[in-house]
Amino acid sequence: EVQLLESGGGMVQPGGSLRLSCAASGFTFSSYVMSWVRQAPGKGLEWVSGISGGGGSTYYADSVKGRFTISRDNSKNTLYLQMNSLRAEDTAVYYCAKVPRAVYCSSTSCYTYFDYWGQGTLVTVSS
Amino acid sequence: EIVLTQSPGTLSLSPGERTTLSCRASQSVSSSYLAWYQQKPGQAPRLLIYGASSRATGIPDRFSGSGSGTDFTLTISRLEPEDFAVYYCQQYGSSPLTFGGGTKVEIK
């Protein structure tokens, strides 16, 4: 059974940093592209970032490019999102999401849907 | 960026009814790369449909998807109590990946 468990959320001041983690189990983690998707309170879903199975290719939404860094440790089956220079508009529940095995990725994006999601971790940016 | 517009914003229905949710794209979605998700309060989204019409693993056959180009629909043939939720569409045919604003299906 696929399981994704996020952690690391909390309250941080504007301009601060936070690192989210997502522990994965139930599948061969290193074989799959992984992503982060966020949802502001009472709002819709927004894709944030993605990373290839080996970690060599990364992808970002324009809204977070240059501030967020996605990474993974395949020896620990864990996905990360380092968030710097946080803004109030980054306040959201952050979901870790698994991508299906057969996915096409270009140099700038992976064209995919998300077949499994974690329960999410809340990030609040406020002074 | 492809903007997805879902309508209506809210549907008030009774269990047993049939319903159709709409997702309209601002540009054609290539290869019908459109997915639908269900989200209940306090829960993560759950994949229902991908490729516009393929049901995900374990999804009951009362859920069906159709459409191509710029117009897509999700049909629930007979609403069960557990189907009352928010439904989102997502396109993955072009970058960036985008989601619709959602349609809430509530109990009448």
Can you put this structure into words, describing what you see?
The complex is a heterodimer of chains A (127) and B (108). With 127 residues, chain A is mainly beta. Helices cover 0% and strands 49% of the residues of chain A. Chain A contains no helices and 13 strands. In chain A, strands 2, 4, 5, 6, 9, 12 and 13 form a seven-stranded mixed sheet that branches. Chain B has 108 residues and is mostly beta strands. Chain B is globular and about 35 Å long. Classes of the chains: A mainly beta (127), B mainly beta (108). The interface between A and B is medium-sized, with 21 and 24 residues.
Please bin the fraction of helical residues of chain A.
under 10%
Structural class of chain A: mainly beta
- Distance between the first and last residues' Cα of chain A: 40 Å
List the helices and strands of chain A in order: EEEEEEEEEEEEE
Instruction: Detail the poorly predicted runs of chain A.
Output: none
Mean pLDDT across residues of chain B: 96
Write a concise synopsis of the structure shown.
The complex is a heterodimer of chains A (127) and B (108). With 127 residues, chain A is mostly beta strands.
